[in-house]
Amino acid sequence: MSATVKLNQGREKSLLRHHPWVFSKAIASVSGNPAPGDLVRVEDSGGNFLSWGFFSPASQIRVRAVSFVEAQVPDEKFIRTLVRKSCKRREALVAQGNDGVRLVDSEGDLLPGLVADRYGRFVVISISSQAIEACRDWILKELFELFPDCSFYERSDTRARQKEGLEERCGVIRGEEPPEVIYVLEGGQVKIPVEIPHGHKTGAYLDQRAARIYCSSLCKGRSVLNCFSYTGGFGLWALKGGARSVVNVDVSGPALDAARQGVVENRLDPGRCKFIRADVFDFLRKQVKEGAKYDVVILDPPKFAESAGSLKRACRGYQDIARLGFMLLNDGGRLLTFSCSGLVDPALFQKVTADAALDAGVQAQIRATLRQDSDHPVSLPCPESFYLKGIDAEVM
Ligand code: SAH
Q: Is the beta carbon of 304 within 6 A of some atom in ligand 1?
């Protein structure tokens, strides 16, 4: 008999809509004394079945629901099928010349708390929930079967993991130790540096693939400023697209080293690029003071809004860098500005960017809106899985 979580009256609505999070405040009682990661049956105040989920006593998200059908108990077969179907959905992206793909993306693929990324001959997993921790062996079994020739590495070192009361776990799961930097082909054309053992996320920002490829098409003969460059993905695509010059700016020395090496690896012209280790806010201010000008400015900062409490401050940050970016653009120049804060929705981000143009004293129009690539799917009932949005604005 599995344990039971009974909700307060009226708190069943989000589960009825198949949103997978059950918050502690929604819970009336827990019976059967479940341990962290145990399967629980969630029911409404009248005892009617709502979902099967996994229990996480330390987290505000007390249960993560994975099945909404009573007869579909999430056993090994159920979980392995979700993993297999998710990997299958990536086949088109792989066929388009992408050796780096997100195989499983958490809520978007109905496996809340699991990330599995494939970088060529390496698969990297990152687990950030008790639910997925409980299913780890099943998931690995399925992935081993699907990718028998790959080495497996774990990067379960996210902040979300602490909230779930889980210890950090990193290292080789099977096969070879990954080198500090490897390269994966993107869009059949550009080799992107990936830092599996010590880089950000699982080693790269796969979510920006589509935006990088798009950016390339704007860069022919143009001068490009790539802010928050990390390992230089946008800069490499800009060079590939024929940019006259590319300036990459980031605070991370190792990321810039990888970016520099990436230019060589792609046989692009190192004479056309610069790598500057600096705080972007300071750098942009200095460039405006010096009267520098560019044709394309890319702003891809880290997440500024971690919680609702920091939303205002985050928006000021986005507005500030976009204002400076606009001031650096030539007439007809393009600002590609992004926010990966889920709390900043597209309408708010457009307003912030509009305010930035106003502050900079320029007029601009939206040439395209951009979003996380298709291997970072958005779950229909879970809008929180949509986080990365961008605007390509042209100065008129
Ligand atoms: N555009 C990149 C991903 C950028 S991630 C890609 O396509 O791969 C955000 C980057 O911002 C990280 O590399 C981080 O080191 C850098 N960063 C964070 N705060 C910064 C700051 N204040 N100034 C400069 N770089 C910063």
A: no
Share of the chain above pLDDT 70, in %: 100
**pTM score, whole prediction:** 0.96
Residue 280 beta carbon below 6 angstroms from any ligand 1 atom: yes
Q: Which residues have a catalytic role annotated?
A: 340
| Cβ density class 182-210: b for 16+ within 10 Å, e for less | bbbebbeebbbbbbbbebebbbbbbbbbb
Q: Is the CB of 151 under 6 A from ligand 1?
A: no
Give pLDDT, residue 298: 99
Span from the CA of 280 to the centroid of ligand 1 (angstroms): 9
| Nearest CA, atom 21, ligand 1 | 279
User: Is 2 a residue whose pLDDT tops 90?
Assistant: no
**What is the distance between the alpha carbons of residues 250 and 295, in angstroms, rounded to a whole number?**
19
Q: 103, 119 in Cβ contact below 8 A?
A: no
Helix-then-strand count for the chain, H and E? 12, 20
Query: Could you report the per-residue pLDDT of 127-161, keeping only the tens digit for each?
Result: 999 999 999 999 999 999 999 999 999 999 999 99
| Nearest ligand 1 atom to alpha carbon 211 | 7
Q: Which domains occur in the chain, in start order?
A: 3-67 (2.30.130.10), 76-174 (3.30.750.80), 198-395 (3.40.50.150)
Q: Which residues contact 148 (CB under 8 A, 6 or more apart)?
A: none
* Structure confidence by residue, pLDDT tens digits, 193-209: 999 999 999 999 999 99
Q: What is the 226 CA–ligand 1 centroid distance (Å)?
A: 10
Query: DSSP assignment, residue 215?
Result: H
193 lines ligand 1 (CB under 6 A): no
Residue 1 has pLDDT above 90, yes or no: no
